Amino acid sequence: MKKATIGIDIGGTNTVLGIVDMKGNVLTKNSMLTPKHGEIDLFITDLSVVINKMVESVRHSTVEIEITGIGIGAPNGNYYTGNIEYAPNLSFKGVIHFVEKMKTHYPDLKIKLTNDANASAIGEMMYGGAKGMKNFVIFTLGTGVGSGIIVNGNLVYGHEGFAGECGHTVLIPGGRLCGCGVLGHLEAYCSATGMKRTAFELLSYYNASESLLAKISYNELDAKIIYEAALKGDRIALDVFKKTGEWLGQGLANTVHHLSPEAIFLFGGPTVAADLIFNPAKESMEKHLLPFFKNKIKILPSQLKHGDAAIVGASALVFMEQD
Amino acid sequence: MKKATIGIDIGGTNTVLGIVDMKGNVLTKNSMLTPKHGEIDLFITDLSVVINKMVESVRHSTVEIEITGIGIGAPNGNYYTGNIEYAPNLSFKGVIHFVEKMKTHYPDLKIKLTNDANASAIGEMMYGGAKGMKNFVIFTLGTGVGSGIIVNGNLVYGHEGFAGECGHTVLIPGGRLCGCGVLGHLEAYCSATGMKRTAFELLSYYNASESLLAKISYNELDAKIIYEAALKGDRIALDVFKKTGEWLGQGLANTVHHLSPEAIFLFGGPTVAADLIFNPAKESMEKHLLPFFKNKIKILPSQLKHGDAAIVGASALVFMEQD
User: In the prediction, which pLDDT does A299 show?
Assistant: First the structure.
């Protein structure tokens, strides 16, 4: 009998789920649309149908498996309460008792929920580049910027269950409007969306009509297009990565001064650009550090497979016993 | 037999030490000059003479006591190694194996060392306003700004042993030169020294020759004088507290987003000004927070007695078993 867990990642558009074995291998995966309207009970019933199908399919195709639990990553997921609370990108409004509702379908399984970045941190520690590390942080760069903090081998949830929101630390006082409504948060600069905003700021500043990016509308531009332009040597696109890295490095230094981590992992689309973003981030972080931290903290790319990371991280929640 | 511990606080000028019982009462205390030149072995021998005298005096005057250990708070004190490492304000240069050297005098006692702000955090948790709290942070506002972080009831040391340096997070990118050489750190704005710098900035900005502070030289001015002027209604002095609070609140919001604490305690001279600094700090922190943190995190004055806090905090280190 092989043990395995279900990992579920709930996103604004898609919900991705899979069965993950004890080594972090995804045995099978599936996805469904996250509903556009807030029919939470219907969604959970549909979800359980997909889960049951996956379990059946694995039982037919491989050795027998025993499902030991379900781990869920969701925006504003609260580990302590098992609730999804006021998630701006989801159609489920207010406080959703997600774990409680899942329990009605799986009363005998251990069911754990946290936010997606925290799930990535746990995945990184159990199956990724942070194996054996006891103090590290992961930043996930996507539409927003999430983060997960590990101290002494445990995920930090804090008093309210919402620790690790480093994307909402203040980077530039009075600066860009963040999606949360506050001015100057790191997320408004270092997310994929932030990179687009930077590109348009730079186009304006330099009146750079010769840039490849000058041909593209605001709504069409994304981090991938900026990356492709950077590979072609476009000066504005290269500058976007440089500035994003510099801003990120300033934010990482704040995290280092709080937590003295062994390493900071970066995860997500923009990290594909490798040195283009890692080099300025490293340089800027070092510039902002106290002398005794200098040249000690590694900035590393996540070792989780991009497509599977969210599922694998969520599944690993089941193994992390914390209160 | 009453159990007690020795608490030692090593400062740039004075070393203060005392015997502390299990309830946090200081049974006796003493102080000596921290040497101006780096004779570390001589200093430790002198320190042991003072310790032994204190122990004798308590044994004569009260019930019998059993000393169970020695806790030491020192700038750049590293809990993991027991070393004081490159402390800029001390005459001991480089890496000083402080605990190891103390062990030669007290081979049978448990001896623990950390930095002064971490010691305050432990003191606050064991004997102060944080009793029963498992997730909180303390900021100590003095010549510099220190901080100590408690997560799940344990002090956060991090990988290198130097976590909790929130005073060196970036507050204003490219801003004031911090004592550590980096631009824009929180300490350069929110310490007692930072307040003096703010006063002079405001005097210059408003050309405020009518201010009480306009009569005082840079080297004479200190936070106490600013406070007294504020009590008299001096506009510049009042503005110093307002701006200091606003800056501090921005920094505290960053800490909240990292750690989701139950409360943040403020300790040190400038906190005597109470509402003058707490109100703008609270307001500014709230302004920078994600919606789900709003109106949840308390900013509280430390409940440790000012004169005893460092000793009491250091003594409590002995009871904190952590690796």
Answer: 98
Which of B279, B318, B323 minimizes the C-alpha distance to B301? B279
CA distance linking residue B265 with residue B193, whole number of Å: 20
**Would the CB atoms of A288 and B182 count as touching at under 8 Å?**
yes
- Rounded CA separation B189/B253 (Å): 16
- Region A265-280: mean pLDDT is 95
Nearest Cβ partner for B257 among A76, A168, A253: A168
Beta strands in chain B (DSSP E): 2-10, 14-21, 26-33, 65-73, 84-85, 95-96, 110-114, 136-141, 145-151, 154-155, 263-267, 298-301
Alpha-carbon distance of A178 to A182, in angstroms, equals: 5
Where do we find the tokens 């098992």? A82
Q: Does A236 touch chain B (CB under 8 A)?
A: no
Which two tokens mark A15? 């919900």
**pLDDT category, B82, cuts 50, 70, 90?**
very high
**What are the tens digits of pLDDT across the range B311-323?**
999 999 998 765 4
Q: What is the DSSP letter of A106?
A: -
Give φ, ψ of B126 to 5 degrees. Answer: -85, -35
Comparing CA positions, the residue from B323, B312, B322, B321 lying closest to residue B125 is B312
Q: What is the pLDDT of residues B199-234, one digit of tens each?
A: 999 999 999 999 999 999 999 999 999 999 999 999
Which whole number is the average pLDDT over B17-38?
90
Sheet holding A145-151, edge to edge: A154-155, A145-151, A136-141, A263-267, A298-301
For a pLDDT cut of 70, what percent of chain B falls above it? 99
For the segment B275-304, the average pLDDT, to the nearest whole number, is 96
* CA-to-CA separations, A247 to A189, A241, A280, B257, in angstroms, rounded: 7, 10, 9, 17
* The pLDDT value given to residue A19: 95
Residues 166-225 of A with CB under 8 A from B: 166-173, 180-182
Q: How long is chain A?
A: 323
Determine which of A256, A257, A300, A323 to mutate to test the interface with B (most B C-beta atoms within 10 Å).
A257
**With 0-12 CB in 10 A as exposed, 13-18 as middle and 19+ as buried, what is B89?**
middle
Buried b (16+ CB within 10 A) or exposed e, A259-289: bbbbbbbbbbbbbebeebbbebbbebbbebb
Residue B86 to residue A292, Cβ atoms within 8 A: yes
Cβ–Cβ under 8 Å, residues B283 and B242 = no
